[in-house]
């Protein structure tokens, strides 16, 4: 194991359509994709696609969708450490002109505690805030062992404030800023106050506001992609997280500005493809985006 990802599992059903029927209406989607889903889960698949040994603590049900997810993980060589639930969770995603509507059905009533696994050889931990007790426990264990800890701060959770004191790299969404009534700049100050070595707020088309190893704040602009090539923005942030962890694992002494530029090119690939699996880039595709796509 090089990296451990902890999060909630979804099966994503992505429908490309201009019309969402209501009542007794029917329509036919232009395209669809069925894939693995979930924030840390998708990040883990992205990291694995880029050549790293990934372990995953995630929810898993003994139903048809659960079997499907096991098969997906097996194909990518991901080692699963399941936390049992009764039913698989589903996300229905409808991309539309750079936005996406999402309807979720989730079973988060875990039937057992999170497994305790050996962290020998682990070099990075990534959390999405799900499984709060397990997230905090593993963050503490990794911090004590000198293992890099990373958080996808997509929203406010009961243990966010406590958890952040064990996080090295915190990349949060503007939604978290809104929930905490903080400006993006104030959020960066808050992350610094919690001891996060690297902090960032993702801002969609405006790129990312972040501070580096020396605490210097700067903006990482988004890459310019023609609007007609933007198909599905869902999962772009998750691919971003998985890619910067892959970059870190490849160059542990590298600068985070380089890791984030690499990840930016990975997420640029994702938004041009429908569904999470189709949107996972290879190293060559990331390098091609870095060479060809200008900044906004």
Verbal overview:
The chain has a single domain (3-22, 29-292), classed as UDP-N-acetylmuramoyl-L-alanine:D-glutamate ligase (3-Layer(aba) Sandwich), CATH 3.40.1190.20. Helix content is 33%, strand content 26%. The chain has helices at residues 39-49, 64-75, 132-145, 160-164, 174-179, 184-193, 236-250, 256-270, 283-292; strands at residues 3-7, 10-16, 31-37, 54-61, 79-85, 90-96, 99-105, 124-127, 148-153, 169-173, 198-202, 208-211, 217-220. A 9-stranded mixed β-sheet has the order 5-4-1-8-9-10-11-12-13, sandwiched between helices. A 4-stranded mixed β-sheet has the order 3-2-6-7. Helix 1 packs across helix 7 (236-250). It is globular. The relative contact order is 0.16.
Strand count, sense and barrel status of the largest sheet are: 9 strands, mixed
Give the helix level as a range of percent: 25-40%
Strand fraction equals 25-35%
Instruction: Find the CATH topology.
Output: UDP-N-acetylmuramoyl-L-alanine:D-glutamate ligase
N-to-C series of helices and strands? EEEHEHEEEEHEHEHHEEEHHH
How widely separated are the two ends? Answer: 37 Å
Integer-rounded radius of gyration: 18 Å
Domains (count): 1
CATH top level is: Alpha Beta
Mean pLDDT: 96
CATH architecture: 3-Layer(aba) Sandwich
Number of strands: 13
Number of helices: 9
Q: Strand order, biggest sheet?
A: 5-4-1-8-9-10-11-12-13
Structural class: alpha/beta
Poorly predicted parts: none
Broad shape: globular
CATH superfamily: Ribokinase
